[in-house]
Amino acid sequence: MNSVVYSDAFVPAELIAACGLRPLRLLPARAAGADSSAVSQGVCPYAHAFMASLAQSDAAAVIFTTACDQMRRSCELLAARDHRPGFLLNVPHTQGDGAFGLYLSELERLRRFLCEVGGRCPTDAELIETMARYATARRSLLAARSRFTGRQFHEAILAVSNGLPMPAPKALAGRASDGIPIAVVGSPLMAGDAELFDALERFGGHVVLDATDSGEMALPTPQPDPQPGTPALESLARSYWHIPAAFRRPNDGLYEYLDREMAARAVRGIVLRRYVWCDTWHAELGRLRQRYPLSVLDLDVSEPFSPHTLTRVEAFLEVLRAR
Amino acid sequence: MHARARQISLDEWAGRYEQLRAGGLVEPWYGGPLSRHVAHGDTRLLHLRLDNSPAALRLWNFLLSEEDRLKEFRASGHKIVGVMKDLGTTPILAFALPKVVAFYPDGAWWLPCVMEMSTALLEASDALGIDESFCPVRAMLGAFVKGCHFPIPDLLTCSVGATCDDFSAIAQRLEALGYRILWWEVPHRRRADKSELAVTLPGGFEAPRSLVDFVGGELTRVRQALEELAGCPLDDAMLTEGIAQANRVRALLRELREVCFTASICPLGALEMLIAEMLAIHFCSDRGECIAVLEELLTEVKRRVAQGQGVLKSDQVRVFWVNPVADIQVMNLLEECGGRICGTDYLFCHALDEIPQDLPPMEALARMALADPMAGAAQDRAARICRDARRWGCQAVVVSRIPGASHCASEGDVIAEAVRSRLGLPVLEIEVPPLSDSIRPSLRTRLEALIETAGRPG
Ligand code: SF4
Ligand code: SF4
Q: Which of A33, B142, B299, B305 suits a disulfide with B125, CB 3.0-4.6 Å?
């Protein structure tokens, strides 16, 4: 089965799967983006590594979104460098009715694209069946959250998003469920970056909320079964439309989500994990500090996880323990 | 009054001003000697070579008095709208209403340069977590929180979607501080699929009908908010009149560019041309006066061309300049190195195109908004740059990167590659910070090398 790579959470994996293609949310490898000259010129390390990782992927097509300027422009680079078809999904930044209509029409356009690149056009019943399958898998995943370590849960989210079975929780001994509850917020992780979760838990924290763009926060909201007469695609669009995201304008939805989930999980510390040049997340640092009476650790993770970062993580938890 | 055209220092302007006054110079109320702006903090003027015409004097005074003029408007009961980011569209909706005036808070972009960092706007922005990894437009955030440089608007609008991340993130930070913003969407401009109706936009780009309709809907939301602010409806006749005024400014600027870029001797320096072009967007805070300023400038330029006068040598190399410079002094530097500006894309070339007047006004404005080169692919922007550079016979292209700007990371390469492959011209990429003094020697060397390469026969 041909796989189709996609760049962020606003691309519905179900739609790709319903077209008979394999959805692949690509979390790029750090090594692939090691060309630091591009990064020093202002390219986001994540966007850069994503493009570099595509070279190693045999995907039949690539879907980008307009969630940020850097990814929007990356789609253009693909056309210049790669023979594979690329698709740029217009994800509105505002959230009015008109903007939702645009998103829905973009999903319709995406469906046509997927059919053109080797997929088949699903019937409404097929799409509904695929959506139900994904919704069930996500429900099971969320129900099992407390049995996973931070890293395992992050990896399980990726697996389920890619249509794979949920991995069984393992290494429960390493789980620090009595640790200090931490929320990790920010940019998507690169492959291997879940080391941050391990470090937080090793030093006495417990990652109870993964509010990164590749974490729990980025999962679509489960929708009730489509009402008779409501097209399946619209129902699908609605479930993705309300994903809280830093790039939405205004991005109050992000803070409503963080307020609610951090209170419910008694979070005591926040780690903002962002890349240099990611303006979208960088600009939220001041607001996080202003809004929450909690320690906020600002981690610019443009470089691989370094001893210096490790020391900062350790010091952060020491401070939290002392409070 | 008509001294021979030349560029002079601010010191020399003092004597020139006295001479003009003695000769009967009549100025608008915001006129006066340029040196007074230095007393208000605009110290960069001390380091610039300025055009010696009364028309240029009026241009500078107009630019540097926007804050005073906005205060006057507020004092006379006008509502003030801060239109952020969209570069040319929403102000037309605003000023078409009675007693509403619009301006771009984005203009604070230049304050760290013009005031040579004395105003601490960047520090204020730093304190809010918006540091130097963002574009210099972050000075706007500092200006809001310090409450200086412009009156706080009664309504703030901001376009988002296919815009830079810098501005969107900074504006969101601003909103989080309590400044309410009406966000409206300009989606990424794409070509129409086979099954879609295509619409040709001003400037020649194309977009699907559905995207134009969507933007029309977004502008309708802005229109409604403005009507509410003004307390009266904005009908199509008023809007048509507003478009006509904007087109008058655009026509003057197109003619000014044409005359300057095609003259055998450069009749007006790059610095004044940059300021004049900026009025394509900043005219909204005072349309009538802006038109008068541009008419006077155009008359002066035509007079000089007719008399074979100019401010530079006749053999200066013809350069196309991409992106505005954070430090305006670099425009002087290019000329010192032997170049002259014969084509520009300062990120708002769509604001120079004529807005269609044979269409319903909201449709025309929607097409205009989507024509923004930044809303589409960098390839589209590069194509327009190549077309204009060829048309004006440019011999070299400078891509001036903006520090921190999200679009500059990849766009510069696309533009440079297009220019080299399609036009075979030399391209120089530089980055210009708000104050370039410390890198001036290296900028000079690189510009001189470009000019030498471009000017070499063969
Ligand atoms: S990390 Fe930020 S800048 Fe980079 S691709 Fe993601 S949203 Fe865009
Ligand atoms: S200069 Fe570029 S990055 Fe800065 S506000 Fe303008 S478009 Fe955005």
A: B142
